[in-house]
Amino acid sequence: MDSLPLKDILFYITAIIMVAGALLTVTVRNVLHSAIALIGTFFASAVLYFLLHAEFVGVAQVMVYIGGVVVFIVLAILLTVRLGERILEAGKQRKIIAALFAAAISVFAVLLLKETNSIVQTETEDFASLAAIGERLLSPSSTGFLLPFEAISLLLLISLIGAITIAYIPKEDKHMEGK
Questions:
Q1: Is residue 81 located within the same domain as residue 153?
Q2: Residues 93, 148 within the same domain
């Protein structure tokens, strides 16, 4: 029986860490701990990119997601969480609906992956170069990602404004807190 190569062992270990981190992200009750688990999940996905020899994408994963998005999420958490407030519990009905919704999305994702499994990459040469990634990321053509890139930037701006709005305490409430 052949032994698994080191690369395969690293893949399985990383995949287990990634799944565990993702489960912790959605099941932990403390939102700050959930953000820390999300950092671990993003880091594990960056390791997978390095194992696939997509070094630029792996570094971008660390810089953009861990360095930017997670810091943004932690900032939003710290702006919106008010210490000492009662935490609302999700009822059984909401948990059942959420579980059914997650199962439906999982089935949809598996079916989608089965469909896209037959697609063959025709342009293998220069596929992961910096120039090819930049051209595809900021291209306004139908194969480019300019529109989603701009939509995400607007979504982040709106969520930051929302966090500040939620965390804002009017002046008359500030005077009441001191009494």
A1: no
A2: no
